[in-house]
Amino acid sequence: MSGLKSLKKRRRVQVIGIAGACIAAILTALWFLPEDSFQYFRSPSEVVAAPPAPNERFRIGGLVEEGSLVRGQGQEIRFAVTDGGALVNVVYSGILPDLFAEGQGIVAQGNYLNGTFEAVEILAKHDETYMPKEVIDALKDQGTYVAPDGAEDTR
Length: 155
Hints:
Keywords: Cell membrane, Cytochrome c-type biogenesis, Heme, Iron, Membrane, Metal-binding, Signal-anchor, Transmembrane, Transmembrane helix. It comes from Yoonia tamlensis. Residues 34-155 are extracellular. One of its GO terms (biological process) is protein-heme linkage. By secondary structure, the protein is of the alpha+beta class. The chain has two domains: 2-33; 36-142, CATH 2.40.50.140. Strand 4 and strand 5 (87-93) form a beta hairpin. The protein contains three helices and seven strands; from the N terminus they run αβαββββββα.
């Protein structure tokens, strides 16, 4: 009977050792990832209050300000994103998603340089009721969030 207890103890030690090695391997892989692998979300108010470093890539989200959309030369588009508390100018060169429109929620990915957010990717809402959770939270913090259907928000 003592041989069976010894076998169980050895198996348990082996399983714990393998799990520990896997955790160490994952943490090592995360340590060596490039800095731009982690992108943080910020609201326009956060960007204006504490501008990030020019080389930091992050995501900004909010509502496209009504009347701010200006089409430039070629595919360049300029618009402003707001969360009701602050306004950040955005410049993007590329094709906008079909669902992009003024007054709608978006998330843009890029860098903040010289007071302008230079977007490399624009993500638009999925349908008339969708808005990213981070954007909703930022709008709620500003006290300007209104549910699309006028109903109480239960999120």
